[in-house]
């Protein structure tokens, strides 16, 4: 689905939500970017999601989940990997007061069954720099870097962004 005013959010499959657990939501993401999964807003005082995942990212996350179990992301502004989103087994990357939980996405399997939550964290310093930004996590050909789980897959996660009114 081409994204303009709305995106597709992952919800349980059923007659009211469509066969693949998709339903329309009012969250706006960059035009022309398909968003297959939207994270629930977790920043205090915010109700709109700041994080979405493309179909390619969701597929790669599912593959990694199958191999590694529950997952989490951390977006740093960082040294070794620049601003690449890093994927880790859930809880492996230690977060603290210098990090902000930007959103939690409820990942489902291809058949619509629930897999579990995927937390998306960002360093507090990067959050301040990107305070007015909505992020879309994509998966593209290339080699992931650092300690991110996708490194050996031939794909890497990439953050696409746009200014937003959040």
Automatic annotation (TrEMBL):
InterPro entries assigned: DUF779 (IPR008497)
Region Disordered: start-end pairs: 1-26
Compositional bias per record (Polar residues), positions renumbered to this chain: 1-10
Pfam family, one: DUF779
Name the record gives this protein: UDP-glucose 4-epimerase
């Amino acid at each position: 689905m081409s994204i303009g005013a709305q995106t597709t959010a992952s919800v349980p499959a059923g007659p009211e939500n469509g066969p693949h657990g998709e339903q329309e939501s009012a969250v706006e993401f960059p035009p022309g970017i398909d968003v297959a999964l939207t994270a629930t807003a977790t920043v205090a005082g915010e109700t709109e999601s700041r994080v979405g995942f493309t179909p390619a990212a969701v597929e790669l996350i599912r593959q990694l989940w199958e191999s590694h179990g529950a997952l989490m992301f951390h977006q740093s502004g960082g040294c070794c990997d620049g601003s690449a989103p890093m994927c880790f087994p859930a809880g492996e990357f230690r977060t603290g007061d210098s990090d902000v939980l930007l959103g939690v996405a409820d990942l489902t399997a291809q058949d619509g069954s629930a897999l579990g939550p995927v937390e998306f964290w960002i360093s507090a310093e990067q959050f301040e720099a990107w305070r007015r930004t909505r992020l879309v996590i994509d998966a593209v050909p290339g080699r992931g870097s650092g300690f991110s789980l996708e490194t050996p897959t031939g794909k890497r996660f990439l953050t696409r962004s746009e200014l937003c009114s959040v």
